[in-house]
Amino acid sequence: MRFTDVFIKKPVLASVVSLFIILLGLRAITDMNVRQFPEIKNAVISVSTTYIGADADLIQGFITTPLEREIAASEGIDYLVSTSTAGVSTIEAYLRLDYDPNEALTQIAAQVNKVRSELPEDAREPVVTLQVGETVAAMYLAFYSEVLSDNQITDYLVRVVEPQLSTIPGVQRANVLGASSFAMRVWLDSVKLAAYDLTGTDVVAALRNNNVLATLGRTKGQDVAIDLNAATDIHDVRQFEDLVISSDGQSVVRLEDVATVELGAESYQTSVNFNGLDATFIGIEVSPDANALDVIESVNEVWDADIIPQLPQGLSAISLMIPPSILIMPLMRW
Question: Is the pLDDT higher at 132 or at 19?
Fold first, then answer.
């Protein structure tokens, strides 16, 4: 007797098994993730340290090398990749497959704090970030305008668009590519500095001493309590230009006498474009346990219903599945 003869003799059993298979198939359609490869824990931990004004050799010797030596002692690291450029040190620790990323993050953060006192005093605090899953975004959103500047586009994306996308279920991070944040740029003239017997250090000291945020607390009377606020910071180009750099009692040297001040971008080293179009992009990174197709569908719904109708006048946007080209160039000032 064959195994299939049981279902011929007992049609009710055959019907139950068939229904059970159908129910499993329907459940799989709704709950099973659609992915190219099996789910694995693939994580990268990045340590980024900024040291403004330092060249690549100094960054390599005094920041990247000490950090690499300590980070390499952490458990779970497969290999390290480091990059030292002018002003920035970046170390990426690629973890072994299926190693707990949170445990590795804790160990690496502890190692970084251990070596912090050995780094240059003017270097900023190292920033440790964890990225789990694919390092390439699932989709890209491009924003461009012939009216708005890159700074204005970035400001709008950070304040309005990025929070909307980050709250979508399954979105691990909405990463802004080609961001051009507002910054007050002070371009020093070495000839004028020498004429006034000043150095760049004098200008930096004046900026630090005259542009600070201070809290004074509050004053309280019998019936009234008033919060005190000190206007110790400066906001616009004119105020920066009027900043006093030095004074001998008879003459005053202001910042506009030795430098050109403008409201520009925080960095000019990166240019992002798609098909020759300069734009600012947002890359949608999907969580490892999320269905990429469902996440993209949810992003498209928010894109059509909330983001596109609310775009300010003069700003256009398109969605892409192809990553943009990123060009990193040295900072130049003519």
Answer: 19
Please identify, among 133, 157, 172, the residue that sits at the C-terminal boundary of a domain. Answer: 133
The residue-averaged pLDDT of 310-320 equals: 86
CATH code of 211's domain:
3.30.2090.10
Q: Is residue 333 scored above 50 in pLDDT?
A: no
Length reported for the chain: 334
Structural domains in the chain (count): 2
Domain finish residue from 99, 114, 133: 133
Question: Rounded CA gap, 72 and 97, in Å?
Answer: 17
Enumerate residues 6+ apart whose C-beta is below 8 A from 260.
Answer: 186, 187, 189
The domain in which residue 194 lies consists of: 183-265
Alpha helices in the chain (DSSP H): 5-9, 11-31, 56-59, 65-71, 101-115, 150-156, 162-166, 190-195, 200-210, 237-241, 255-258, 292-302
Give yes or no for a contact between 143 and 160, defined as CB atoms under 8 angstroms apart: no
| Residues 6+ positions from 190 with CB-CB distance below 8 Å | none
* Residue 311 within any structural domain of the chain: no
End-to-end CA distance of the chain: 91
- State yes or no: pLDDT of 327 exceeds 50: no
| Reported confidence tier of residue 48, pLDDT bands at 50, 70, 90 | very high
**pLDDT interval class at 323 (50, 70, 90):** low
Which residues face 320 on adjacent strands? 140
